[in-house]
Amino acid sequence: MKSMPIYIFALLAFVLAGYPSPVASSERLASGAKSDKQEKVLVGDMNFVKEENGAERVCFSLSRFCIPGIFSIPGKKPRIVVDIKGVPAWYGKPRIQVNGNQIEQVRIHLHKAEDKLRIVLDLNPSLDFMVEPRYYEAERLYCVYVLPK
Q1: In which band, very low, low, confident or very high, does the pLDDT at 64 lie, cut at 50, 70 and 90?
Q2: What string of DSSP letters covers 57-119?
């Protein structure tokens, strides 16, 4: 098998990562459309689901495609943090008690000065877990799965 030139590989990786092509972006801007940095993101209500296989998930809808930042904080109070930039307002609850096996509660806070919504999943410190974020494009639904190890 021939090796793929690096620039084709880089372009393919860029497109597969969910980013629009540079050509499509420049055409969109030329037609008067706003850039992604100017478009705001609206976040819908959050829901918690316990699955039969032991997985738990927190899902919420997004008004448009975006890639939230996600990271974990290990230790005595382990947490998963999801940051969504470009969110001007949050009208949902600030705290959701879920009492799952892995996820104990969900806390939500809007950082107005940064236009950022922070979602924190407080986890059970006595369990090991894996985290798997998923975006369902057709439904515009972003989910964070917490799976037992």
Answers
A1: very high
A2: EEEEEESS----EEEEE-SSS-EEEEEEET-----S-SEEE---SSEEEEEEEEEGGGTEEEE
